[in-house]
Amino acid sequence: MNPNQRIVLQASRGAAAFFVLLFHTSAMSFKYFHYDFLGISGIGRSGGVDFFFLLTGFLLYHTYGHKIGTKMTVIPFLTNRLIRIYPFYWLITLIVLPVYFVVPSFGYGYETYKDTIIKSLLLLPQTHGPVLPVAWSLSYFVLFYVIFSFLMAIGKKPAKIFAGLWLLLTICHVFHVPILGADMDRHVYLNFIFSEVNLEFIAGCLLAKWVQHHKTRYYTFFIIVGALGFFFIWVNNMYNLIMYHNYLFYIIPAVLVLLGASSIPEKSQLPTWVQHLNKLGNASYTILLTHLIFISILMKLSVATHLVDYIGFFFTALLVVALTIPLCYIVYSLAEKQLVAGLKNAMNSKPAKSSVPIS
Question: Keyword set for this entry (predicted)?
Answer without folding.
Answer: Acyltransferase, Membrane, Transferase, Transmembrane, Transmembrane helix
